[in-house]
Amino acid sequence: MSYQLLPRDASSPIPQPITTGSSGPPSRRRSLLTFVGIAAASGIIFHLIFTFGFAPGSPPNHPDSLGPSNIKDWWSNTGDASYDSKGPAGTTGHGSTASCPPPSTLDEDGLGGSTSYIRPGLGQYVEEGEDEWTMDKIRTMVEGTKGYYVRDWSLGLGWNNMRYIIETSLLHANLLNRTLVLPSFVYARACEWNITVCASFAEMVNRGDAIGWGEWRELPIEEQMCVKRAETT
């Protein structure tokens, strides 16, 4: 095949190349389908990688990890279906050495008798005499801190106030590196009870001074006073 250059004048149009097929820009629909397909394939690939390749494992003995199949097995850390608060080496599931009396030894109220009460946590009870601390035990507990942080409050406050006071006091004590001291008697009345119910629990002779309330301040002094009488049967 031979080619020949033909002269043209200045007024003749520029010849356009001859095409034999449709090679124009791709349509918008084709571009959208391509983008969606690539995104879907990438999502599936990343999902498989992070699920089976780099997924962080569950903590040991966690209910979601392979091993113990339910919370009872996880707490006892024994792998069987029996439920016991004691774990390996006679300790509880969370590492404490406190023991739990069997249910058969508890009274109808579940308190284990008049000398025991429920400790916060699953299956935790305070044994008789466990809460009677000597000065040596107290010194041992406090010697790791800078001293005491004592928090008191009005006896007339309800639980909604009490819970925040206790939580805030614990934070203050931790920040100051001190041992938190709270009153041993907390009434924390419910909001539906009258304030006179709180006054009946006061040990002091003046009801207003005892609970930090001013309801009786305008009354004669004999009506402000409240003597705690011993109940007789």
- Biggest beta-sheet profile: 2 strands, antiparallel
Count every helix, treating DSSP H or I runs of 4 or more residues as helices. 7
State the assembly state of the protein chains.
single chain
The side-by-side strand order for the widest beta sheet comes to 1-2
How far apart are the termini?
131 Å
Proportion of β residues?
5-15%
Low-confidence spans: 55-116
* SSE ordering: HHEEHEHEHHH
The computed structural class is mainly alpha
Describe the protein in words.
This protein is mostly helical. Among the domains are: 58 residues, no CATH class; 40 residues, no CATH class. Helices cover 30% and strands 5% of the residues. The chain has seven helices and four strands, in the order ααββαβαβααα. It has a two-stranded antiparallel ribbon with strand order 1-2. Strands 3-4 form a two-stranded parallel ribbon. A hairpin with a 4-residue loop joins strand 1 and strand 2.
